[in-house]
Every structure is written in C-alpha cells, then in structure tokens.
Amino acid sequence: MVPCRRSPRSSNPAFCGKATSSDVRSGSPAYGENSDLEQANIMNISDSTIIITGAARGLGAAVARHLGSAGAKLALIDLTADSLDATLSACRNIGADARAYACNVADESAVEQTFAAVVDDFGSFNGLVNNAGILRDGMLVKAKDGEIASRLSLADWQAVIDVNLTGVFLCGREAATGMVRLGSPGWIVNMSSISRAGNFGQSNYSAAKAGVAALTSVWAKELARHSIRVNAIAPGFVKTEMVASMKPEALARMAAGIPAGRLCTPEEIAHACAYLIENDYMNGRVIEIDGGLRL
Ligand SMILES: NC(=O)c1ccc[n+]([C@@H]2O[C@H](COP(=O)([O-])OP(=O)(O)OC[C@H]3O[C@@H](n4cnc5c(N)ncnc54)[C@H](O)[C@@H]3O)[C@@H](O)[C@H]2O)c1
User: Is the distance from the beta carbon of residue 17 to the nearest atom of ligand 1 less than 6 Å?
Assistant: First the structure.
C-alpha cells in the first residue's frame, strides 16, 4: 500500500482520497460546500520505498539524500556498486534504509533483474526517480570554409538515446509492471531537461529529453487507472559533474543568460522532486526548474 495521508472521505487505501466516478454519481458536495475539498491529499514519503537511477552522484545523489532524510527507504541504482558507496553512506548516516544495485539502465535484462531484486529485498516499492543520463554533445554538422569538419556520430547519437530515452522507458516499464503486479499504487518522476525544446549542439540529448517529456504524458494517461502518477522535472543548468564536463566557454555563455544569475543547486531539484511525489493531484506534467532560463 502506498503510504498516504488520506482525506477523511476515502476509505480505500489504494486511492489516497481521490474522487471516484461513484463519488461523482452519488453527488459529492459541490465546491465550497464541504471542508473535505479544501484538504490536500498528500503522499507520504516516509516509509515509501523509492528506486533512484543514476544515484551515485549529482541529482540522483541529492534526491536520495533528500528523500532519505524524509524517511524513505531507498534502492539506489548506478552502473557500478562501488560508485554508489558515497551516496549509500550519506543516506545511511541520516538513518535511511538504503541499498545499492549495479545496473545499466539501457540493458533490458539487467533492469528486469534489478527491479526483481529490489522487490526481494524490500517487499515492494512505491516510486521511481528515473534520473540516469549522459551527455555526448556535438553539432549535427560542423563546417569551416565550406569544408565539413565533423558530424555527430551515430555512436554518440545512439549512446544518448540508449541511456536517456530507452533507459527511461525500460525502468518506467519495469516500475509500472511491478506496481501493478504488487497492487502497489505510486508514482514515477522522470528527469527531462529544458534542452527538450532544442539546444544548440545537443541533437541527441534534446531528442531524448523531448521523448522523456512525451513518455511522461503518455504514461500519466495510461497508468492513472492503476493509481500511478507520472511527472517530470526539466532542470535548467544544475551544479553537477555533468555540467562541469561542459566546455567552459559554452557553460559561461549559458550561465550569463540565466535570469536568476546563478546555476541551480542539486538540492533545489530534489525539493521539486519531493513536491511531485507528495502532491497527489500532480499528474502528466513537466515542471521546469530553470531560474527563468528559456532555450
Ligand atoms: N545537471 C544538469 O544541469 C541537468 C540539467 C537537465 C537535466 N539533467 C538530467 O538530470 C539527470 C542527472 O544529471 P546529473 O547532472 O546528476 O548527471 P551526472 O553525470 O552527474 O550523474 C548521472 C549519473 O547517472 C549514471 N549513469 C549514467 N549512465 C548510466 C546507465 N546506463 N545506467 C545507470 N546509471 C547511469 C552515472 O554513472 C551518474 O552517476 C540526467 O538525466 C540529466 O540529463 C541534468
């Protein structure tokens, strides 16, 4: 069962206070007639079991610490178990029940085995932060004086699509499968990006992140009947190793255009993630946390 602070109206734990069609038919009070309607239905993070991909560093690690400090049990996924040591100990130091799983999110059988291992270890799970991602930036075609200098390679295109889009699909499908099988309603938060609008030098990344936004909308529609909500975060530029790997001149140019005058912190993204988890009426939306930057 999903931990949930339910409205007094709801007697069905699976629905966390959501109105059903029979509520409507039986004539639930109109707006303003019942203080019940003024209550927010809040999903409890505490005691939820949450799977986080790409948890070894950056946003995944910050989300793990934030949700761990709110009482969540954590299944932390990254390419290698060793790389998760720092996040694992940070989470355990704040009292969270956390375990590490080595898994390439782009590998179908590895994803299936890892999610099965999480169920074996924790009994069930309530949420997925679908966060693992990579960059392989490059212009589609780079030319000087009419001569082609370079082209975005198929390998760089495919690598980003494999992890940032197929990986999100595989983990999302496995999470939904598990939650439906276990009768364990919950949520998925996908990590998109403001680059989904189309960013210079990022054909592969922008296409993948636009795909992630589309998956968020499709899954929200398809999975609502199973009481699974799906949302996404589209960060701007966040202070992580991924951004540090950008060319300094490109990063400086980008940072100069941020109305907030600074990069986002990983903790600000973690805070937005907790909001998406907690608010039971958020579904199918991509929220931008970008300091006002538009690409
Ligand atoms: N940092 C930003 O400014 C920013 C902006 C927009 C979106 N994002 C997105 O947020 C997510 C996290 O970004 P970050 O900045 O923390 O990146 P990061 O590079 O610091 O961390 C990404 C993590 O994902 C892991 N990972 C990569 N490929 C994997 C795979 N195949 N299987 C499992 N794990 C894998 C890496 O090992 C790493 O620990 C990514 O999806 C990224 O595209 C980041």
Answer: no
> Tokens at residue 260, please?
């907030």
CB burial of 196-221 (b: ≥16 within 10 Å; e: otherwise) equals beebebbbbbbbbbbbbbebbbebbe
Helix (H, G, I), strand (E, B) or coil at 125: coil
CA nearest neighbour of 137 among 208, 216, 239, 191: 208
Which residue has a Cα nearest atom 41 of ligand 1? 133
Mutate-to-test residue for ligand 1 from 65, 156, 240, highest number of ligand atoms within 8 A of CB: 240
Give the burial string for 16-53 (b: 16+ CB within 10 Å, else e): bbbeeeeeeeeeeeeeeeeeeeeeebbbbbeebbbbbb
Q: How far apart are CA 96 and CA 50, in angstroms?
A: 11
Q: Residue 264: helix, strand or coil by DSSP?
A: strand
| Residue 33 near ligand 1, beta carbon < 6 Å | no
Q: pLDDT tens across 124-134, in order?
A: 999 999 999 99
**How far lies 76's CA from each of 96, 137, 214, 264, in Å?**
12, 27, 25, 23
Q: Which domains does the chain have, with CATH numbers?
A: 40-289 (3.40.50.720)
Question: Which of 274, 286, 80 is closest to 193 using CA atoms?
Answer: 286
Render pLDDT for 20-71 as a digit per residue (tens, 0 to 9). Answer: 333 333 444 455 555 555 677 788 899 899 999 999 999 999 999 999 999 9
Question: Which residue bears the tokens 């069609």?
Answer: 21
> Which residue, judged by its Cα, is nearest atom 36 of ligand 1?
54
- Please state whether beta strands 186-191 and 4-5 pair in parallel, antiparallel, or not at all (unpaired): unpaired
Identity of residue 11: S
